[in-house]
Amino acid sequence: MAIPLWLAAALGATGVLLARVDYNLFLMKFFRNLSRSKARARLHGNKLAMIPVMLGIEEPMKIKDDVDAENAMTITRDQLEEMDGHDGAPLYLSIRGRVYDVTAGSKFYGEGGEYSDWVGRDASRSFGTGCRGGVDRTGMDCLSESLEGLTAAELREIDRWLELYETHDKYTFVGHLVDDPVNDILEQYEEDDAEEDEGGLDGDTKSVADEVGTEAETVQI
């Protein structure tokens, strides 16, 4: 029996779509959303939380800032890099500048794990685009904290991942990612020294010019 033309076209289109699916990314998002729906039900008692979350039509969950932000723990990028699970170190990652301890998920975040690329850095961009190596469609480093050029849908994906870490019953919030104050001070000293050197050079040049001018006047007399 011949297959109707419309059915053949539909099957062909489905095959093209399936061929373009990143199955690893699809499964990552599926289990992420499953975990989020369970967390929403646990925290808010909403037994129907799974349906909108799994369909991607859920209302965004607002992440509350720390009540005592001034006393909240801060982590520099250098310190974050050291939290990679090696030599007994915990596993930390950062998303939108918020650092989480994901050591409990070492099977996934440890060396060789599916999510190991996110450990020891703020890779917010990767959470939004799904790109975890090289450069993305905009030509920027995938494993970057920059959100430049991301679409509204990609920014929403980042928020979904942030919700996962914020509400997970085994992952914990550690603190905020900050620039190293020591590095800032050293950079400021270097800038000040450079300005002083430049100013000193101009002064020396003027003195030499004055001396040459005086000698020239003496010769003429």
TrEMBL record:
Residues 190-221 are annotated as: Disordered. Pfam families: Cyt-b5. It comes from the Eukaryota. InterPro entries: Cyt_B5-like_heme/steroid-bd (IPR001199), Cyt_B5-like_heme/steroid_sf (IPR036400), MAPR/NEUFC/NENF-like (IPR050577). Residues 75-178 form the Cytochrome b5 heme-binding domain. Residues 190-201 have a biased composition (Acidic residues). Belongs to the cytochrome b5 family. MAPR subfamily. This is Cytochrome b5 heme-binding domain-containing protein. It comes from Cyclostephanos tholiformis.
